[in-house]
Amino acid sequence: MFDLSSRRAATDVVARLQFEGTGVCESDFSTRSFDGDNVNSLTDGPQAAHMAGISDREVGKLLNDLPSAHGSAQDGRAWKRRLHDPAKRARRAARVVRHIRFVYFAHVDDDSLFGDYHHELVSAEVLMDRVLAARASGMKAVHPHLNSEAEERLFNRPPRGSFPQVTPEYIRWYGRDGARRNEPMVREELAIELMSEYGYSYADALDIATNNSGALARMDQAWLLTRAKTPIYCRPLHATEFHQLACAIEGAYLVPLGDAQVTRANTEIARRAAAVLSTVLDEFVEAPFRIPVLAEAFAEFHSAHLLRIAHARLAGLQPMPVTGVLGWFSAKRARIYAEVQARLAAR
User: Fold this and answer.
1) Which domain of life is it from (predicted)?
2) Most buried one in 80, 93, 168, 258, CB count within 10 A?
3) Burial of 93 (0-12, 13-18, 19+ CB in 10 A)
4) pLDDT value, residue 14
5) What HEC string does the chain produce?
6) Nearest to residue 17, comparing CAs of 101, 111, 129, 138?
7) What pLDDT score does 35 carry?
8) Can you tell me the distance from the alpha carbon of 56 to that of 22, in angstroms, rounded to the nearest whole number?
9) Residue 321 and residue 314: Cα distance in Å, rounded?
10) pLDDT value at position 306?
11) Phi-psi region for residue 232, left (φ > 0), alpha (ψ -120 to 50) or beta?
12) Which residues contact 215 (CB under 8 A, 6 or more apart)?
């Protein structure tokens, strides 16, 4: 049992994390700087912060000092004043820059090869801004398994006359009396409807609903409906946009021959973008990059992120009292899920 001060501290941490959003993990792997140097790691433990979300300090380490092709034009004395001011230094350390900006070639023709390259840079920046904004707002920033076709089927009701007979897809959209449903049935609801209508077992009904209709799982459909109501600047990415972002980051990494400083800066920014992208995925996902450098950066930080999440979930389960059969099954399922994610991350 926690004492009163521990509960109050845990509540404060959870409330603060709800406003700060979640970001990259800080496990033994991810607390290393991007070039491999060791930094101070945080102490592991069953804290409320681990249960509420993963710290985003590593996002700041990856994004706050992005390379640039331009030198600093700030006044030296003003910079020294800020450097030696403890309050300003603390605010600067706590601030997290939630965007990625590449370096553009100057004085080039938009119809040239550089114009196509700049288009890749813009695409990567816009999509990455949406990912980070969605993550900061508390949403699932990327759904790597729901593509644009699933979204299109969800928001386009087929005409009633297009069904020659009653099928699972028809039941998904229309009731027994032919009335239109306000929203299509989710997979679980459709399975229960098939059980009552045709006497299937739940396993068979769920299999029919999965393979013979476009019904989505409850959480997937809720995510798509929430995504549709979200402003475009912080709208999370489905699988199609996720792969578009990966292709744009690869395009940014393949810098055309030109200014050497721009080349060095953008290759490093692309590597950091791949690392940041891996940390917004709370489920194991294969690296979407074909370039080995980007795939390695994605896999390293993604593995560290999943390990931190798994450790946090396991630590959070230990002091929790389990009451009743449903509570026991919920705790066991959460523990199994965390262990599976940890094993996938450690492969």
Assistant:
1) Bacteria
2) 168
3) exposed
4) 36
5) CCCHHHHHHHHHHHHHHHHHCCCCCCCCCCCCCCCCCCCCCCCCCCCHHHHHCCCCHHHHHHHCCCCCCCCCCCCHHHHHHHHHCHHHHHHHHHCCCCCCCCCCCCCCCCCCHHHHHHHHHHHHHHHHHHHHHHHHCCCCCECCCCCHHHHHHHCCCCCHHHCCCCCHHHHHHECCCCCECCCCCCHHHHHHHHHHHHCCCHHHHHHHHHHCCCCCCHHHHHHHHHHHCCCHHHCCECHHHHHHHHHHHHHHHCCCCCCHHHHHHHHHHHHHHHHHHHCCCCCCCCCCCCCHHHHHHHHHHHHHHHHHHHHHHHHHHCCCCCCHHHHHHHHHHHHHHHHHHHHHHCC
6) 138
7) 41
8) 6
9) 14
10) 84
11) alpha
12) 168, 169, 172, 184, 185, 186, 187, 190, 209
Cβ burial 48-63 (10 Å sphere, 16+ → b, else e): bbbbbbbbbbbbbbbb
pLDDT along the chain (347 residues), means of 10: 40 37 34 36 34 48 64 43 52 57 80 83 95 89 93 93 92 92 94 92 94 94 95 94 97 88 92 92 91 94 84 60 62 71 67
Q: Do the beta carbons of residue 149 and residue 179 sit within 8 Å?
A: no
Specify the pLDDT at position 98: 66
Say if residues 133 and 56 touch (Cβ distance below 8 Å). Answer: no
Calculate Rg over the CA atoms of the chain: 24
